[in-house]
Write a structure and sequence with these properties.
The structure holds two protein chains of two kinds.
Chain A lengths: L1 H9 L3 H13 L4 H20 L5 H18 L12 E7 L7 H13 L1 E5 L6 H11 L3 E5 L4 H15 L6 E5 L5 H7 L3 E3 L2 H11 L5
Parallel strand pairs in A: 1-2, 1-3, 3-4, 4-5
Helix pairs in contact in A: 1-2, 1-3, 2-4, 3-4, 4-5, 5-9, 6-7
Chain B lengths: L4 H16 L15 H7 L3 H6 L1 H14 L12 E2 L1 H6 L12 E2 L1 H7 L4 E2 L12 E2 L10 H6 L1 H13 L6 H31 L7 E3 L3 H10 L1 H10 L1 H21 L7 E5 L8 H21 L3 E6 L19 E4 L4 H8 L4 E6 L1 H6 L2 H15 L5 E5 L10 H14 L3
Parallel strand pairs in B: 5-6, 6-7, 7-8, 8-9, 9-10
Antiparallel strand pairs in B: 1-2, 3-4
The chains are: A alpha/beta, B alpha/beta.
The complex binds cobalamin.
Cobalamin sits at the interface of chains A and B.
Chain lengths: ~210, ~400
């Protein structure tokens, strides 16, 4: 049944996979194992995307399926049962309202085992600083789709520095980032691909990717 | 020896037209930059730029004067208004006029699609198109049945607070008309100034891709992608139903003298080739071909990565128009489309914002070496909107680099 569920998710059968996941629990299956299957499936989807076999449409639907299943699985899991790789504070930067890419990255990061604190879109510097103080994450992820967001990222980087939060790792993503933007912002890494972004986050924490 | 504005305009137009006609011009044409930088460079706020047309026209003039690209992309600020164009698609004189919704028009409409500086946003923020979900999945049938009626009668009253009762709507449409006429008189002023500065007339209309109407204005961009999996037949029929009003809207620009039509695409990057070829391309292709048949050359802006769909462009007739790329590698695109489509793009905005004059010169030199041979290429920023803090010296460096390495 696990294999069947895995295939249904990877093959984008939304209705079928949600139904099967529910059946699995009804028949006494462990939520922890269900989570594992979903994670593996998301990994496989990400891999296919990186290879060019899958496109954003599949990432989007994959993220949606994962979210739907997690809605009924997560409440069943004890805190201790979920292995947590680390925490990411994530947001689309000030003046930018694009959310789709950020949400896809979030789904994939969660599937990989990160806890993600999502600050939403058009997030001002102060809100990032506040959230970092409160949640003490390992990584700050900034999503940026418009050129005006490039300086928002730089300002956020500086605000974190000015608040003594120098050591936090910063990864930037979204359509407007590349190596030169990374350098301009002073970030630690960049990715315009959710699957690779998750891999880089693992590397930043020294977890095998 | 300084050239007269007329000579300059003639030279620039010949340069651009040669590229569009797949020939080698005297020099690689350099498409203009616009965006927040235009207001910032003139020292006015984005709010002033959006709401005070006198100040905006002066800012645009200053920018055009100081940054002599081959075309001017510094224009009045407005955001995608295509849903209104669909609603008015039975009226050739009105439909094209609503292609862009400016700040003052946004105030009149009280819509939920846009946010403007000095209103919902800080005075120095970029205007925002939010889009959103204004239609439920069970309404696809109504959309399919009567797309124009559904948009005009059901969607617009939902999306615009000042259209939510028929009485409010009466006043709103009259006010909107008055705003349009102010906008067009300012636009006319820009036309006059451009000619004085030696910019060629480049009469450009608009088009849109039918499925993008559903994504941008009806269901939301992410939601329509999920709809494709959930209700494939309905989405397809809805895109098909929207094709006629969109085509009519696009063709009306002919009466305004348009010879080109800009079609910005949104969902192309999201879709796998299978979905693209089934839900997106057939309807877009219809719009493109209709325009082409009527003597209007489309300038299609393939946003994001279009790599997976490059070959489909070859289905269009040779010399159909201009393929403008954002993140697709133009070197690769040019190889695929050589002798078939004029290719445009090549300058990453990140480089213009974060690079240095030296880096820019080097980049342009290398790029032109690859894409110049054979002509049919227009050099342009991957996105035409430069942010406020774009270093002025970088824009000059770009123009100088093309002067240095752009000649054939
Ligand atoms: C969809 C879209 C919209 C939707 C957004 C819907 C939403 N809720 O997100 C709507 C229609 C509302 C919209 C509005 C606007 N948009 Co828009 N939009 C796009 C479009 C077509 C696609 C963006 C997208 O979602 N891509 C798909 C996602 C999945 O990709 P992605 O974000 O890169 O994410 C991937 C990776 O980067 C990564 N990732 C994302 N975030 C993160 C974060 C981290 C930490 C990591 C590691 C990875 C990661 O994971 C994702 C999956 O692999 C682009 C053009 C394009 N194709 O890029 C324009 C584009 C981004 N928009 C643009 C503009 C200008 C606007 C507007 C200002 C107005 C307008 N002219 O339409 C407004 C308002 C924007 C604002 N102020 O924020 C410009 C930006 C230009 C610029 N250089 O500034 C673009 C490039 C279009 C263009 N060429 O002109 N837009």
């Amino acid at each position: 049944m696990q294999e069947e569920l895995f295939n249904k998710i990877v093959n984008m059968d939304e209705e079928g996979s949600i139904k099967l996941a529910k059946e699995y629990l009804d028949r006494g299956g462990k939520p922890q194992e269900l989570l594992e299957v979903c994670r593996r499936a998301m990994d496989a989807i990400g891999e296919k995307f990186e290879k060019g076999e899958y496109f954003l449409s599949e990432l989007l639907l994959g993220g949606e399926i994962f979210k739907s299943i997690m809605e009924f699985v997560l409440p069943l899991l004890e805190e201790s049962e979920t292995t947590k790789l680390g925490t990411i504070v994530l947001g689309t930067v000030k003046d930018d309202i694009h959310s789709i890419g950020k949400d896809i990255f979030k789904a994939f990061a969660q599937a990989a085992g990160f806890e993600v604190i999502d600050l939403g879109v058009d997030v001002p510097e102060e809100k990032f600083v506040e959230a970092v103080r409160e949640h003490k994450p390992d990584i700050v992820g900034m999503s940026c789709l418009i050129t005006a967001g490039i300086s928002s990222m730089k300002r956020t980087r500086e605000a974190l520095r000015a608040s003594g939060l120098e050591d936090i790792k910063i990864i930037i993503g979204g359509g407007r980032v590349d190596e030169s933007v990374k350098q301009f912002v002073g970030a630690d890494a960049w990715s315009d691909d959710a699957a690779r972004g998750v891999r880089i986050c693992k590397e930043l924490l020294g977890v095998e990717g | 020896m300084a050239k007269s504005p007329e000579e300059l305009a003639k030279e620039r137009l010949a340069r651009i037209e040669a590229a569009i006609n797949l020939q080698e011009p005297d020099k690689v044409p350099l498409w203009g930059v616009g965006g927040d930088i235009v207001a910032a460079y003139a020292g006015i706020t984005q709010y002033e730029f959006c709401y005070d047309y006198d100040k905006a026209v002066k800012a645009i003039e200053k920018f055009m004067r100081d940054f002599p690209f081959d075309t001017s992309m510094a224009g009045l600020m407005g955001l995608e208004g295509r849903i209104f164009c669909v609603a008015f698609s039975e009226f050739p004189d009105i439909s094209p006029a609503l292609s862009l919704i400016t700040g003052p028009m946004h105030d009149v409409l009280g819509d939920k699609y846009y946010r403007y500086p000095g209103r919902e946003l800080d005075e120095n923020a970029t205007p925002q198109f939010l889009g959103g979900t204004f239609m439920e999945p069970d309404e696809y049938d109504e959309l399919i049945e009567d797309p124009v009626g559904f948009v005009a009668g059901t969607i617009l009253p939902r999306a615009c607070t000042n259209l939510d009762t028929p009485r409010k709507a009466m006043a709103t449409w009259v006010r909107l008309g008055m705003e349009c006429s102010k906008f067009f008189s300012a636009a006319g002023e820009i036309g006059r100034v451009s000619a004085e500065l030696g910019y060629p007339p480049f009469p450009m209309g608009w088009g849109y891709s039918p499925l993008d109407i559903i994504g941008d204005f009806l269901r939301g961009v992410g939601t329509v992608v999920l709809d494709i999996y959930r209700y494939p037949d309905k989405v397809k029929k809805a895109a098909e139903a929207l094709t006629e009003p969109i085509t009519n809207y696009a063709l009306y620009h002919k009466y305004m003298g348009a010879r080109y039509a800009m079609i910005p695409l949104h969902l192309n990057e999201y879709l796998s080739p299978k979905l693209y070829n089934e839900f997106y391309w057939p309807y877009l292709k219809t719009v493109i071909l209709k325009l082409y048949e009527e003597g209007i050359k489309p300038l299609v802006f393939f946003e994001g990565h279009h790599d997976a769909h490059l070959d489909t462009i070859l289905e269009l007739p040779e010399g159909w128009g201009i393929a403008y790329f954002e993140k697709t590698d133009v070197v690769k695109a040019k190889k695929v489309l050589q002798g078939h489509s004029c290719v445009m793009g090549g300058i990453p905005m990140g480089l213009l914002v974060g690079g240095t004059p030296m880096k820019i010169e080097e980049y342009i030199k290398n790029l032109l070496e690859e894409v110049k041979p054979g002509g049919g290429f227009i050099l342009a920023p991957g996105v035409g909107t430069a942010p406020s803090e774009t270093p002025v010296e970088n824009m000059h460096a770009l123009i100088e680099a093309v002067e240095k390495y752009g000649y054939y």
